[in-house]
Amino acid sequence: MSIIRAVGLGREFPLPRRTLFHPRRSTVALHPTDLSVNAGEALGVVGESGSGKSTLVRLLLGLDTPTTGTVEVAGRPVQARASARELHWLRRETGIVFQDPYASLDPRMTVARSIGQPLRALGVEGSHDARVLEVLQTVGLDADMAQRYPHEFSGGQRQRIALARAIVHRPRILIGDEPLSALDVTVRALVLDLIRQLRRDDNMTLVIVSHDIGVVQSLCDTVAVMKDGHIVERGTVDSVLLNPQQAYTQRLLSAVPTIPR
Question: What percent of the chain has pLDDT over 90?
């Protein structure tokens, strides 16, 4: 059963007029697109910069307003131009991890306050302090780190804090927009294992946007390849990455560096 369903989803951005007498122009970031993600599925979205990956994710999360089409999450429509309060139900269903963990954390807030922010904003019942300590342990951080500030942590630790904040309210869907690209290889492997464990333990649905084909191959069941605002190929990870049918997918995979034997 689909937990995310987009029909004819598209986004155009207006461009400034050259002069008052020139017609209005626009650029298409996402052409009308259909997409469905089943509950418990892990979908990887790949493509070069500017292919529309982040635009697609923002529309699915209700962080931007589509020019065309509709989005449903868990069977409920995501209303265009809805207020923050009207989208509380969507925030309860979803958690997101961004590319830059330092930019996504308020430097004035302690770790405990940052992680607990979704609990307060969404009015989640129960002990917030206990849940924050529980989720810190889940991501492999000590409880005594809760009163420290983001600048006191390494990049990998900050990304684990960002992940803790994304899952603290127990969402059914976890979305990562280049969540591992700012990390070194060793830390990336640790965070990969953590996301894999979260999916296994909580049966989370994953949508991972990444330039890193290896990350998608390691985490995902299915993959969607994007180019110029279109999904040009979609299928299982093995079928698309081992036997690509589209010329663009073949070129994308051929650009991945490999070590010769």
Answer: 57
